[in-house]
Design brief:
four-stranded parallel β-sheet, globular, Rossmann fold, 241 residues, alpha/beta, 2 domains
């Protein structure tokens, strides 16, 4: 068995999907473990109260706590940089690394990295978010070089409620953006149940599915110097070098 690899996940407080889903993803890789520290996140909107949830101070404190577990990488397992901009994550994660000495990454930065590796000229977007948040995500990804060719959203702001969305609803949305021509599809939210759909829908629809929970794990393994291909049965993402 490869050496033990511990991953630190900064987790939104109201998220109930990413921890059990990550545990399921890791079932084929017992040498890798995931460890969480939570920051308070309860609602998603463009309002000041919502955006303030993602300030540097709580991220630093969570990073310090994860460092106590001697993790090999720290991942901000949330998607706020989708609407606040990737540079926001770069600044915060640089501060986390400076504080802890541990490589740091995020679900959004890793999504951009995966799209780059796929050489995707455009992508389909599936989220639970409201219109102005969705539009900002589209703008930020386009500025990073990836145009959104089709999208669907659920118009929900309560972060806890995202986890209550049935997997069948997420599947319907993925199918709709695939029908609109998207071949790389991003399920942007670490509190939606999209990860289990990857292998089946990729084979059926000829797509690559980048679910945020899966992408965050893929990126954290890479940041820690591990091999993501140890994760088997969860789609093409884990074959990307």
């Amino acid at each position: 068995m490869p050496p033990a690899l511990r991953l630190g996940m900064i987790t939104p407080s109201s998220n109930t999907v990413l921890e059990p889903m990550t545990a399921a993803l890791l079932a084929s890789a017992p040498h890798i473990s995931s460890h969480s520290a939570r920051i308070r996140v309860t609602s998603i909107s463009m309002g000041g109260g919502s955006t303030a949830q993602f300030d540097t101070a709580p991220m630093l404190e969570a990073g310090r706590l994860l460092a106590d577990a001697k993790v090999g990488a720290i991942c901000w397992n949330g998607t706020s940089a989708g609407w606040l901009g990737p540079e926001r994550d770069r600044v915060i994660l640089a501060a986390v690394t400076a504080e802890t000495g541990i490589p740091a990454t995020s679900a959004v930065l890793d999504t951009l990295a995966a799209l780059e590796l796929l050489e995707a000229p455009g992508f389909g977007l599936v989220t639970p978010y409201v219109a102005d948040v969705q539009e900002r995500v589209r703008e930020n990804f386009e500025a990073a070089g990836f145009a959104c060719v089709a999208d669907r959203r659920l118009d929900i702001t309560d972060n806890f409620a995202f986890a209550e969305v049935p997997e069948a609803t997420v599947e319907r949305m993925i199918r709709e953006v695939a029908e609109d021509g998207a071949t790389a599809i991003v399920v942007l939210c670490t509190n939606l149940r999209g990860a289990r759909l990857a292998e089946r829908l990729e084979a059926e629809l000829g797509i690559v599915l980048l679910d945020s929970v899966s992408v965050a794990l893929w990126g954290a393994i890479r940041a820690a110097g591990g091999d993501p291909s140890a994760i088997r049965g969860w789609g093409k993402l884990f074959e990307l070098a």
